[in-house]
Here is the input.
Amino acid sequence: MVDTTSVKAEGFVQEAKGRVKDAVGAISGDAAMQAGGKIDQLGGRAKHEFADLYDANESRLEAVTAFIQERPFVALGIVSLVGLVIGRLIFRKRG
Here is the structure.
């Protein structure tokens, strides 16, 4: 399991560091430093998005797991129906 709080914190720090490097590069005229700052900002934003996406998917997985545990026969029926439909689509008679 990923600790999304620490990933978000790392993302905020990396993005802030990138903003500072971008600003210092712009003031000093150092294009390489400015580009590095922009890359750090994008990396920080990517970490934020990853943490948010992981949180959303983890909660969906927990909801599905809870549904299966609370209603195992309904879940079995749903899976059987889906399997039947897929089987019919794949192995239908060709004529």
User: Anything to note?
Assistant: The mean pLDDT is 85.
